[in-house]
Amino acid sequence: MEVVYGHPKSLKPIQTKYCPGCGHGAIHRLIAEAVDELGVQDRAIIMNPVGCSIWADLYFDFDSVQVPHGRTPAGATGVKRMRPDHLVICYQGDGDLAAIGTAEIVHAANRGEKFTTIFVNNAIYGMTGGQMAPTTLVGQKATTAPHGRDPDGAGMGYPIRVSEMLATLGGTKYIARGSVDSAINVRKTKHYIKRAFEAQLRGIGFTMVEILSPCPTNWQMSPPQAADWVASDMIPFYRLGEIKNELVEGGGA
Amino acid sequence: MAEEKRLMKGNEAIGEAAIRAGCDAYFGYPITPQNELTAYMARYMLDSGRVFIQAESEIAAMSMVYGAAAAGGRAMTSSSSPGVSLKQEGISYACGADIPCVVVNVARAGPGLGGISPAQGDYFQSTRGGGHGDYYHIVLAPKSVQEAADLTYEAFGLAEKWRMPVMILADGLIGQMMEGVVLPAAVDPGARPDRPWCAGGRAGLAREANHVSSCILDPAGLEASVRARFERYERIAAERTRFEAVNVEKADLILVAYGTAARVCLGAIQAAAKEGLELGLFRPISLWPFPKDELARLAKAGKRFLTVEMSMGQMVEDVRLAVNGTVGGAVAAVDFFGRCGGVIPSEEEVLAEAKRIVDAMNASTAEPRSGSARR
Asked: Which residues are B37's β-sheet partners?
């Protein structure tokens, strides 16, 4: 009898340390499924960042390299340049990618580095306990924005739409934004991830999938409330879909 | 057969030596006075199908080195003092993850932006683990273009043997001056040590997944890992400490200096000899591990020391620690003479300082001495 749905081979069969309702678990699974379907478990390398997903090396059954906070794209550049036939997955959160590592992501993308960034946007710092992120929405509360993000009055600035910003760069070939708030969005996100991985394996330029991901603990919500908040508040600001697609003739947003 | 001697700039000789040592990937960011090295690597690495990236910052360049080495490559970066401060983040991570790589500091004068002239004010940063955490790494200090090439060539193998970054601490003078150099032969790419720990190359899932990381959240586990590294440091100190000693047995006063300052001291020693004064030179080549045992031996034999640096006095602390308070049973006399800010001490002023000390030694052999006025 054929097994049509099971635990991905690239993901170890252990319980994660992530909080209930956290998006990392679902995102890990999507990555592992895509790696399995492409048959590249033995040549996949994940760059695991500083943040909650520092645990990634416990869960994925492939090689990993852990780099300084924000330098993930620089580390991935070094890895991919030395191992061009490997699938290099640069896993980053919003603090890692859009704050401390802004220079690294912009320049890696602009050089057209041939790895895939999985950008997990939960609009908050998770591991450090709920500080304001570059992607925190206007009015959203954080430990460092106790009255909510106030762009002008308190000089906290505006949430950054990183995918749209990177899409302006010549080196970027595929940028999509998905979400893991609902079953349908999970399925679409899987499709984006697989498309980005396939493009990487074909040696096309920089690819990235941004994924809106709930953080119930630091949003101080229940898991269902957090999933609802992604749909009601995040998605209207962070539009889902393929933002840039230069993988095929005539492709695009 | 050895190659013919070539006239090369220090920066270019370092680059060529790295290429011959099998450097697979170079990452750098422009900064004076090491720019010729980055340009040399751009010219020859790309042409030979190797990796060259002008990075967006020294911080990124160091993390690229970290990634390339973690994936099994021979990787290198170079910079000068302010840029090396930025690299300290990645150097700490590389030390924590036991990643071999080569970092070249063609040092200039600080602090801050300082100046672009040669200086030795980065000794503490280089030899004390310049980033956060408990660690050291090998630091090699060339005094000439030839030695810069030789030490760079050797650095890649040392880094792999000891699983750590190896720093070449030159200064702007070594980088900028031209001298004759005989370059080492290109290494056989097949003769490299295996890197069973690195990321990538897990064909057929023939082994467990490798995780290259410095992260150990369990305090007892992290302590054990740091302690194991410090045991390795002891072995490095036993095997890899290097120095040059000139006329140290005859002389009562030994000049202690590295790099460019050591060359000035050699000139002062020759000038002293013409006046009938015997001076010696003790030149650490490995600044870490520091050749403390040999200095201690000389101290026990009754020698006195004048440390000469292009700084306000950094290595002199290691000399004093090595001598450990006694010279021939009396209180140690370790004097210091230094110029900083990019000023290179002259042979004449080093000789004058040496003579002052020798005169004082002759006048009062038993009396404890205070440090030099320049300190």
From this structure: none
Instruction: For residues A221-233, give the mean pLDDT.
Output: 98
Minimum mean pLDDT range among A12-16, A97-101, B106-110, B367-371: B367-371
Grade residue A55 by pLDDT with cuts at 50, 70 and 90: confident
Over residues B150-206, the pLDDT tens digits come to 999 999 999 999 999 999 999 999 999 999 999 999 998 778 888 999 999 999 999
Q: Where are the domains of chain A?
A: 24-245
Q: Which residue of B has its CA nearest to A74?
A: B64
CB B336 within 8 A of CB B305: no
Q: What is the pLDDT of residue A253?
A: 45
d(CA A86, CA A91): 15
Nearest-by-Cβ selection for A67 from B25, B63, B75: B63
pLDDT of residue B325: 65
* Torsion, CA A124, CA A130, CA A133, CA A138, rounded to 10: 80
Residue A139 clears pLDDT 80, i.e. is over it = yes
Distance of CA B303 to the CA centre of its chain: 25
* pLDDT the model gives residue B318: 97
Q: State residue B49 phi and psi, 5-degree precision.
A: 75, 20
- Give A-chain residues touching B213 at CB under 8 angstroms: 48, 57, 64-66
Is residue B101 within 8 A of residue B157, CB to CB? The reply is no
Q: Could you tell me the strand order of the sheet in which B304-309 lies? A: B243-246, B279-284, B253-256, B304-309, B334-338
Which residues does A217 contact at the CB level (< 8 Å), separation at least 6?
A19, A22, A126, A130
Mutation for B interface: A40, A82, A113, most B CBs within 10 A:
A82
Q: Do B67 and A104 touch (CB under 8 A)?
A: no
Phi/psi for B63 (5° steps) reads -70, -30
Give per-residue pLDDT as tens, B268-291. Answer: 999 999 999 999 999 999 999 999
pTM value is: 0.96
Q: How far is Cα B374 from Cα B349, in angstroms, rounded to an integer?
A: 11
ipTM above 0.90, yes or no: yes
**Superfamily in which the B6-240 domain is placed by CATH:** Thiamin diphosphate (ThDP)-binding fold, Pyr/PP domains (3.40.50.970)
Give the helix ranges, DSSP H, for chain B. Answer: 10-20, 35-47, 58-70, 81-96, 123-127, 145-162, 172-176, 219-240, 259-274, 292-300, 315-323, 347-363
Q: What is the homologous superfamily of the domain A24-245 according to CATH? A: Thiamin diphosphate (ThDP)-binding fold, Pyr/PP domains (3.40.50.970)
Q: Which residue, chain included where needed, has tokens 């090689």? A: A63
Pick the CATH number of B244-363 from 3.20.20.70, 3.90.79.10, 3.30.70.60, 3.40.50.920: 3.40.50.920
Domains B6-240 and B244-363 share a fold: yes
Which DSSP string corresponds to B190-210?
A: GGPPP-TTSSS--GGG-SPPP
Percent of chain A residues topping a pLDDT of 90: 94
